[in-house]
Predict the 3D structure of the following.
Amino acid sequence: MIETPYLLFLGDAPDQLAAKVAQGIRDWRPENAVGQFRLPGCGADVGLADMTLQEARDAGAKTLVIGVANRGGIISQEWKDVLVKALEMDFDLASGLHNLLRDERDLLAAAQTHGGTLHDVRVPTDAYPIANGVKRSGKRVLAVGTDCSVGKMYTALALDNAMRKAGMKSTFRATGQTGILITGHGVPLDAVIADFMAGSVEYLTPDNDDDHWDIIEGQGSLFHVSYSGVTMALIHGGQPDALILSHEPTRTHMRGLPGYTPPSLETLRDVALPLARVANPDCQVAGITVNTQHMSEDESLSYLAGVEARMGLVTIDPFRQGADRLAEVLGSM
Amino acid sequence: MIETPYLLFLGDAPDQLAAKVAQGIRDWRPENAVGQFRLPGCGADVGLADMTLQEARDAGAKTLVIGVANRGGIISQEWKDVLVKALEMDFDLASGLHNLLRDERDLLAAAQTHGGTLHDVRVPTDAYPIANGVKRSGKRVLAVGTDCSVGKMYTALALDNAMRKAGMKSTFRATGQTGILITGHGVPLDAVIADFMAGSVEYLTPDNDDDHWDIIEGQGSLFHVSYSGVTMALIHGGQPDALILSHEPTRTHMRGLPGYTPPSLETLRDVALPLARVANPDCQVAGITVNTQHMSEDESLSYLAGVEARMGLVTIDPFRQGADRLAEVLGSM
């Protein structure tokens, strides 16, 4: 559990894209961030007030979150000067970088001296159980993709927003480092040991009110040979009541795998649903989300309408349209 | 890579079943073991000459292998006396126990003093890559089960034997601790970090001669919610040319999962084959192995003939019949 609210560290981000973790926090949990901290030359701006460490502390910030990717696989001295100072001022630090904060001797020493916590969210912190498959109370929904990086996290966060807006009970359950930093907790599933993957998902989505929805962040794809085992563990550990099929229609091959063609939405449905029904015989496909960022508005609307007619399922682009229609479908389940 | 030949440590095994790792080595790689070492009161005997440590050294033994399960989750002082002595006599040690040898201070100290290696085969030793899905030369076969513990390792080892006997090129590829101890190398897949599972299977089964078969040890089941992610990674990392369906027909529920009914062989085929074809579009189901240990000889033969007629696939119990018929099918692929 990472303490909120945050000060978002943008460092010397070369451009907006490099600060996408900070942008995600700003977009989805604005109440979790009091401001942003930028170094000279920073090319990113997530639209929050620029603050010094002291101003952020005065505004109540508890944790300095690295909201930017680092360059060259190192944590620079310029960054460290800020991070050590933050620890001296009683901030915790949180990071999803591949380089772990705890592996930096000066950061570790400052944390120990001042009692701060270093949250490396790529590293599991809990001892997860082996999955037991016991049916849990409450409802769960999971997005599965025709490929990796087709918008499953975005789908989940948009759906969570739409459900809350509609007065439904819902919790976004993060399974990747960006999602964990956005919400302050979750399971870094890609770093969990094989035998405990499904158990970690059970642990993340425990018994709940009968009318509560866990919205589980998807990972990988059943059709992506590098990561399909992770997806499989989400489907069986999550025992979803509802699947959402997620798709990016302009992909010519699977991400990082030339020669592998993404499946159709029909194929995804036909493979994923029987597997999901092993853990939850009542599982249904609730709808479809499409990432239409590479299409014009007209093309997008026409594509979505075509898929909806063909598949007989509510089909939306949650970025362009929000996820209200999908929330409505789940509300009736 | 564990150095062979071995001396098999049976310790104070209460019965034969407790020594099943040693028995597996004796059954499948008799050339890897010069003898057995038993403590007073040992209730197991794998049919090798009883040897002292010195006799085994004189016979060329390089590694003392713990071939027995320990009791109560501890490594007893009685065991340690032997293990330390073995290290002093220049043996390496190898173990698949949950308690790691390296976590025992006295064993670690003796290993460091005498230059011996402690092989804890439950722990991955290599830095595995992320799977790239590139097609590899050579052929691969993988057994997938309707449940866990239905005889997939036995199937693979029997098939390896039958293929060698028939003059075919084959290598058993171990993915679990027993298999690793039997052959001296492999990947402890259940302990690999999620993102690297499929990559570790690619690493284990590299390019090979066009007429060489890697016989990959299966794990878990696509229908076992605790471990299905591991099975999925084997299917996609292994990119098998052939699947074998493995079944235990008297199972009333999935192992350790009351309330979960094992699927039919038809359902297993219909789920596993499309998934395997994602990584290898030419994948075929080559045959079926059935563990009929809970049936009489007549019942077994009748059951096997019934499945063979129903499924149109060679169907054998490799324990009762050997795997020659299955080797023949693969030889024609």
In short: The mean pLDDT of chain B is 96. The CA atoms of residues 139 and 213 of chain B lie 5 Å apart. The longest helix of chain B spans residues 265-279. The interface with chain A takes residues 130-133, 135, 189-195, 197-199, 222-223, 225-233, 235-237, 239, 254, 256-257, 259-260, 263, 271, 274-275, 278-279 of chain B (CB under 8 Å).
